[in-house]
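Journal club prep — side note

Before the paper discussion, L.F. wants everyone to see what a predicted structure for a comparable chain looks like in token form. Sequence:
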Amino acid sequence: MNLSRRRFSQMAAGVGAVVSLSSPISLFAQPLQLPAPTLPERAAIGGRARDFMQRYDIPALSVAIGAGGAILYQDAFGLVDREAGEVATPAHRFRIASASKPITSVAIFSLVEAGRIRLSDRVFGPGAITGTAYGRPPYHPHIDEITVEHLLTHTCGGWSNAHNGPDGDDPMFINLQMDQAQLIAWTLANRPLDGPPGERYAYSNFGYCVLGRVIETVARQTYPAYVRDNVLARCGVTDMAIARNAPGERQPGEIKYYGQGENPYALNIARMDSHGGWIARPTDLVQFVMHVDGFAAPANILKPATIEVMTTASAVNAGYAKGWMVNKAGNWWHNGTLAGTSTIAVRTHTGFCWAAFCNTRKNNSPLDGDLDKLIWAMAREVKAWTV
């Protein structure tokens, strides 16, 4: 979840560099029935995966690529549990970290389409969505000006993840004993904003935690229940869940996480639900992305005009929209990184959607950006695909 300005720039450069801006290809230029990779192409893809895993000491890597509603390729490599010798399969589930944010964004926009919320609605204070559930006025300056759109675009005015750790800025990584409501109340009382909402971009996991509570307040359901019923089920996804914290609480089919100088089980991952708490298979995330990708097939679960608003960059950051990183080529994506986790989900302007998950991360390394580049390179091994 540590998406610093430097890391964001690296990610944006990585995805933007792999496409031609001069001659974008529409989905309709693709064959109606794209073929799966041939055996030699699968072997080349596997070779790239194994080289990548060796470079970054990755126990397990799982990948899925789809287009037009079909999964064209899926495979997994390595071991999901080194000690037990358990081999990775495409059915194993991984924490997806901040690749959860597009899911929360789509959930918000489903409520917008239903007329139950507006992007301009205020979040805190009398007459706002959550009212005084997390504290009564007087607030620190500007807190009662924050809107749903500010949270979606990371422009709420503060609470960034610029410096994680016990004394850092990101509220999601402190006070681990608190539940979400307690943490939000504590943050509003003890963490003033850096400035007025809407003026600058500052990536905020906490802001997406608040969006989960906005969904719960408006929908009158828990965040996971609303997302499962109104987003994932409509995409044909039934096996995603919110992660648990301890090694002994792993869900069925969930992999084991390995830290490289960090403890993946020292997090309150369940509290991260709406900003980074989902577990999934790559095929689950690809199915989700294909149902909000703006292309004709499969049928999207949001209207075209809604998808355009959701994926239009904010006025203060040309590389981030509302829950999605974007570029001028028409690609959308989101990465995710936590102790023990590196992930990415991508929608390309040529109509492909893919996801890749690792069960480790290497801090202060180019792993995240290289994971992005790896899947582009894998897809380019298939001669019949135009990516």
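L.F.'s comment for the group: The beta strands are 60-67, 70-81, 86-87, 94-95, 241-242, 278-280, 325-326, 332-338, 341-347, 352-358. Keep this in mind when we get to the figures.
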